[in-house]
Amino acid sequence: MLKVGVIGVGALGKHHARIYANLPGVTLVGVCDVNEAAGREVAERHGVEYFSDYRELAARVDAASVAVPTIGHCEVACHLLSLGKSALVEKPIAVTLEEADRMIAAADASGAKLQIGHLERFNPAIRAAKQIVTMPRFFEIDRLSVFTPRSLDIDVVADLMIHDLDILSWFVNSPVATIHAVGVPALSPKVDIASARIEFQNGCVANVTASRVSLEKIRKMRCFHAGGYVSVDYAEQKLTALGVHPPATPDGRPVILPVPVSVQNDEPLRAQLAAFIECVETGTTPEVDGRAGRSALEFARRVVSEIEAHAVRANLPTLFG
Fold first, then answer.
1. Where in the chain is the domain with CATH 3.40.50.720?
2. Which CATH superfamily is domain 121-264+300-313 in?
3. Is 314:126 a contact under the CB 8 Å cutoff?
4. 249: buried, middle or exposed (CB in 10 Å: 19+, 13-18, 0-12)?
């Protein structure tokens, strides 16, 4: 049995603990959180030990999820990795690219696995879409959330949009050519609403919007590609696909028909943690390893740089301090 722990059991970490506690082949040893009341509540719920110091928990496990605030990712992950303990780190990988590099180097040096929690890679609807999208040409992506007092140590690009930036990189597989982006704070000192138009070197274009101050929760991606059209509702795990077929009408027009696609619903976090455990047990490289996490962070930082540049052009530099 692989011994695992969860460091940080807030909004996300408590679900890591729930899934580990029921995952075959895994023993949840304990949880750690600086909030003792919250940590003990989760520990008692699953009948495991509470740790106030993550180092003590790290010494007792083979692998751990790191779901502390982003500012603590590098410190905690590097400690785990230095001990040869594998780490699944919630996205974004780190605050800075330099921190990401330290984490990657620590994993390389120890041989322990470093996986980054880009959850949508494990969404069944997205995985099904990946199988049928050929030569994507245009994306429209919206990720809107109601305001919650979590993840306010990072902006909405690193908090929410980074999910879709990672998916775009995965689908398009081409370097970014240009980015035009705007964003503003609303209920926090950091950017809470952002929109970016991204063009890749292969000509694909994407419009991406992220907000954490919406009145409703929306998670949708629409993609026009060489084979037709695909629409994904991330939250509902629903996929609609249309295919363009050769002319079959008297006037020679192509025919657009639904494409049957099977989506096997699953909790993305469960699938992600199961994949992480499999990598630890088999020694294989995680699908979303440290380098993939760094790439997503670099993409996000480029978007933020364009937002800041737009603010300066619009004579609004005070939005960013």
1. 2-118+269-288
2. Dihydrodipicolinate Reductase; domain 2 (3.30.360.10)
3. no
4. exposed
What pairing do the DSSP bridges indicate for beta strands 191-200 and 2-7? unpaired
Q: How many residues does the chain have?
A: 321
pLDDT at 320 over 70: no
Q: What is the CATH number of domain 2-118+269-288?
A: 3.40.50.720
Q: How many CA atoms lie within 13 A of 110 on its CB side?
A: 21
For the chain, what is the mean pLDDT? 94
Tokens of 238: 């629903």
CA-to-CA distance for 316 and 321, rounded, in angstroms?
Answer: 10
Query: What would you report as the CA-atom Rg of the chain, rounded to the nearest whole angstrom?
Result: 21
* CB distance 255 to 242 below 8 Å: no
- The predicted-structure confidence for 179-215, as pLDDT tens digits, reads as follows 999 999 988 888 999 999 999 999 999 999 999 999 8
**Cα–Cα distance between 224 and 239 in angstroms, integer?**
14
Question: Using a CB cutoff of 8 Å and minimum separation of 24, what contacts does 213-218 make?
Answer: 213/146, 213/147, 213/186, 213/187, 214/144, 214/145, 214/146, 215/146, 216/144, 216/146, 217/144, 217/145, 217/146, 218/142, 218/143, 218/144
**Reported pTM:** 0.93
| 6 has pLDDT over 60 | yes
pLDDT tens per residue across span 56-96: 999 999 999 999 999 999 999 999 999 999 999 999 999 99
* Band of pLDDT at residue 257, cut at 50, 70 and 90: confident
> Any residues with CB less than 8 A from the CB of 167 and at least 6 apart, and which?
120, 121, 126, 141, 221
Percentages helix, strand, coil for the chain, rounded to the nearest 5?
40, 30, 35
